[in-house]
Amino acid sequence: MRITHFIIALCVFSSPAFAQSNGTTLIPTESEQSLLDRYVFLFGGRMGDDHMYSFFNPFDVTYDNTLVIGGGYQQFMLQPAEHFRLGTEIGIAARIGEEKTTAEIWGGVVGRYDGFVINDTLRITPSITFGMSLVTDTMGEEAAREVHDGRSAGMVFYLSPEISVSLADNPNAEVFWRLHHRSSAWRTIGGGSANATTVGIRYGF
Predict the structure, then answer these.
(1) Which N-terminal residues, if any, form the signal peptide (predicted)?
(2) Which domain holds residue 98?
(3) Residue 158 falls inside a structural domain
């Protein structure tokens, strides 16, 4: 039931009707249609035993034998500054280990900056997603940290910094590196944490 309630809440809070009722217009005018971008993405990677900050150097991390395979959908609705856009993201992943396989669903707010272009050829896009993550069960180092904290890691925060690369003349097709992180944020909500290094592809339409 927690996952069902989470999906319903995400749909309500990201809907145009909710935004208009709170004084914010998310549906662009005809001249602003370029601000409304939708993306789908797929990714895969491995979970590791180290803490989040270690994963910013993905080549110096102790990985376990758990694979993470997933995908998601993004919709960008606001542009508060030049080249910077805000939207929502929802995703689902399978976490496949030696002893068990669990499922994860997450959703939240995503921001990205599209202003870095090298020689009018290569676009480098940093982005970050922040929201909530739910799993059907914990596993591996995540489960050990959950026991240590004495609090459930079933529902915790989701944080995913990312760097994507695309051709300047074809910005809708991207490849990306993404840190897949879920944690209690110093036991603010729940306990435990999990990290994975992933790579993937994204298509915008």
Answers:
(1) 1-19
(2) 34-204
(3) yes
27 domain-assigned: no
Nearest to 103 by CA among 34, 182, 199: 182
pTM (predicted TM-score): 0.81
Q: Is 168 helix (H, G, I), strand (E, B) or coil?
A: coil
Q: Is residue 23 part of a domain?
A: no
Q: Are 165 and 152 in contact (CB under 8 A)?
A: no
Question: What one-character DSSP code corresponds to residue 137?
Answer: S
CATH, residue 88: 2.40.160.20
Question: Cβ contacts of residue 40 below 8 Å, gap of 6+?
Answer: 71, 72, 73, 74, 202, 203, 205
State the CB neighbour count (10 A cutoff) for residue 86: 16
Is pLDDT of 143 > 60?
yes
Closest CA to 120 of 81, 83, 170: 170
pLDDT, one tens digit per residue, over 36-86 is: 589 999 999 999 998 898 999 999 999 999 999 999 999 999 999 999 999
pLDDT at 167: 95
62 close to 47: Cβ distance less than 8 angstroms: no
DSSP state of 146: H
How many residues in total does the chain contain? 205
What φ, ψ does residue 108 adopt, rounded to 5°?
175, -160
| Listed residue (132, 180, 131, 179) closest to 153, CA to CA | 132
Half-sphere exposure of 28 toward its Cβ, with a 13 Å CA cutoff? 14
